[in-house]
UniProtKB/TrEMBL annotation:
Superkingdom as given in the UniProt entry: Bacteria
Keyword Signal: yes
Species for this entry: Catellatospora bangladeshensis
Keyword match Ion transport: no
Annotated transmembrane regions: 55-75, 82-99, 111-127, 139-158, 170-190, 202-221, 233-253, 260-282
Protein known as: DMT family transporter
Length: 300
């Protein structure tokens, strides 16, 4: 794991956080005004035209594009498990944006959550940062099928649940699974592009699977934004994505999978610290104050 890939990963996380804040405001407001029934599958598809007509939403889309570019570069130069774990800092970047909107400074809970995430990431980088990464070392099609099945299960569960918070978390988890799949395919396609050039990439299936995966993950993210608060949606994504990315990376890319008590203990400690920090930030009053639907946006 290089300093360059770490910085690119942090830049991507910042851009994704800005995109999430902008798009959630519009998507949640429009969906709230429309009042879709909870049992409907992917009701966000019914408001796509209104989202595309919102300058705020489109600004978030541009941030997403820039974030993906930085993210792809980070994945090409670093290990997928660590790069995806860096996305956990999205909630940290969301704090100053919440402060800018409300004037409410971060609380002690926010600082504690931020410290826990940083400590967990530091332990993860120290434990796995020097592990070399290969490409397509494992069963890529099987991983993609497993991800599709998981996303389908989460969406069906979300459709059957009446609680808003549960639906938002399940939709966010499905989006996180989609983003983890997109990260896997980004690693494969970037390696193909560097090794064999664009013509070879265009003739192979992973690039088209990447485009489809990215589109599906983006739609699922909007579904999570439409169904509830930003902290719940973003937390589900930032927990599911790194966990699944670490699993896929260990199966496909890690030249030396973690073995031994020390390596496994370090990973457990890093995961616990990051998870605790994300949980603290997710329940932050600072972030919850910016999650309510905005009536002016809903009239677009």
């Amino acid at each position: 794991m290089t300093i360059t890939s770490t910085l690119l990963g942090l830049l991507a996380a910042a851009l994704f956080a800005v995109a999430a804040a902008l798009q959630h405001r519009v998507t949640r407001a429009v969906a709230h005004a429309r009042g879709d029934a909870p049992g409907r599958l992917l009701p966000v598809l019914g408001i796509v035209r209104r989202l595309l007509g919102s300058p705020v939403w489109l600004a978030g889309f541009c941030c997403n594009v820039l974030g993906f570019t930085a993210h792809a570069a980070a994945l090409h130069t670093g290990a997928i498990g660590i790069v995806q774990a860096l996305l956990a800092v999205q909630l940290m970047f969301a704090l100053p944006m919440a402060y800018a909107r409300t004037g409410r400074p971060p609380s002690a809970r926010d600082w504690a959550g931020t410290a826990a995430v940083c400590v967990g990431l530091a332990v993860l980088v120290l434990a796995r940062g020097g592990v070399a990464q290969t490409v397509r070392r494992g069963p890529l099609p099987a991983v993609l099928v497993a991800a599709v099945v998981l996303i389908a299960v989460l969406l069906l569960l979300a459709r059957s649940r009446s609680g808003q918070g549960v639906r938002t978390a399940l939709a966010g988890g499905a989006a996180g699974a989609g983003f983890s799949t997109t990260a896997v395919l980004t690693v494969v396609v970037a390696d193909q592009l560097a090794a064999r050039g664009p013509v070879s990439v265009a003739l192979d299936w992973p690039v088209y699977a990447l485009a489809l995966s990215g589109l599906v993950a983006a739609v699922l993210a909007q579904e999570a934004y439409a169904s509830g608060g930003l902290p719940t949606a973003l937390t589900a994504m930032t927990v599911t994505d790194p966990v699944l990315s670490w699993l896929w990376g260990a199966l496909l890319f890690d030249q030396a999978p973690p073995t031994g008590l020390f390596a496994l203990s370090a990973l457990a400690a890093a995961g616990t610290s990051i998870g605790a920090g994300v949980a603290l930030l997710a329940h932050s009053p600072t972030l919850r104050t910016v999650s309510a639907p905005l009536a002016p946006t809903a009239r677009r």
